[in-house]
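Box S2. Input/output pair 1.
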Amino acid sequence: MLVAAVGFTGVLGSGSSYRPAGTEPPSNSAADPRATTPPGAVRCTPASCPHLGSPDLPQEEWDARNNRAREMLDDLIAALPAGYTVVRDDPLNPLDPKAFSLGFYQAYFNVRQGKQTGLVIVEVHTPQSPIGNRWQGNGCDLALEIWPPRGTCQLMTASQAKVGVAQARWNEDPPRFAQWAVYRHPDGVLVKVVQISRPDRYWTAPPELKKLPFTAQQLADLAVSDQFHVDVD
């Protein structure tokens, strides 16, 4: 389970994409057993990230939200351009979309082209999301605020809306490149669509994508799409 913390994603918890510290991967696994987080991420706990708290919702509403997260995953997969395939059997990044108790949705998957592997994520925050509320502004001001590496940004037009599409490279070994589009709807719903050249959490990192799946314009179009908008209570 990836969890947005400071602009990008942290991972936590038993049963999640990151295993607890000290556990070992299964035999023949490429997974890194250390519970690490990507650059700029903050490990969440129920105390530090209120959206992880116990859901105070009827089961019917909980089911509806999880179904909405599943729809987001399906729509994001359907938007994937030709030439890329979804990795459906990765235990560290399973196809497991989530809805959290305070208005936060997330879906993600590894994407492959030949032997190169990257990661695609969509996050949706309602005005009730304590994480989404941290990010202020619109356009490039918003896009550059939510990702600590900052990077560079271009303002795109999508469906007559202005969308910040930013990008940055981490100077790791090997390096990783990311591009993300962020849009805040008039009703306060915030949508972030991210593509990353190489996933994390592996003993041996797979070759990174040399060409990310979506163009900057396609990222902007996804960010404003009704497919990833949710009704505000």
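Box S3. Input/output pair 2.
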Amino acid sequence: MGMEHRWSDRRPADLPVTLAYRPLGLIRGRLQDLSGGGAYIRTRIALLPNTPVELVVPNDEQDATRLLRLPAIVTRSGPEGAGLMFTQLTATQYEALLARARAALAPRPAVADRSRTRRRSGEP
């Protein structure tokens, strides 16, 4: 295995993303991890190394129209996904992406199952 050249720590993630990949169009994937220099995207589509892509991530969990669009280059590709190197990532974009990744990994509060509770007479 070759030596990795990483400028910042790799952070775990599990976030749905889209890759704008010119040879094929839009590809769905999952962000598996990220660092200040790049990301690993799980996808079943083989991507060509050295190909430009745009990583598209909803910037707000409640508003899917607010998107982060992050230009990158495919650095490696295999049967389970692709490594990307960001080409123009600002500190603000990285912090927004990291916040989305953390929010996706955070435990969700349990939702009460109201279908099992009995209604008293006269309650709607």
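Caption for Box S3: Strands lie at 11-21, 25-34, 38-42, 52-58, 67-78, 81-86. Residues 91-105 form the longest helix (15 residues).
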